[in-house]
Amino acid sequence: MIPIKRCALLFAGLLLASSMARPAWAANPGEIKFGLILTLTGPYGVWNQTAKMALEDHVKEINAKGGIKGRKINLITYDTEGDLVKVDTGARKLIDQDQVVGIIGPEGSMEAFSLAPLAESAKIPVIATTASATSVTLNMAGSVKPFMFRVCPIDPYQASILANFAIHDLKMRKAAILYDSWIQPDQDFMLDFYKAFTGLGGQVVAQANYKWEETKFRDQLNLIEKSKPDFLFIPADSYRAVAQIAKEAKSMGLKFQYFGDEGWSIDDLLTMAGNELEGSYLTSGISTKDPRFADYNAKFSKAHNMEIQVAAYYALDAIMALEHAAKVSMDKTTKIDTTIMNDTLEHMKDVPVFTGTLTYDPKTHNPINKLMTIMTVKNAKWVIVKTVMPD
Question: Which residues are bridge partners to 177 per DSSP?
Answer without folding.
Answer: 207, 233
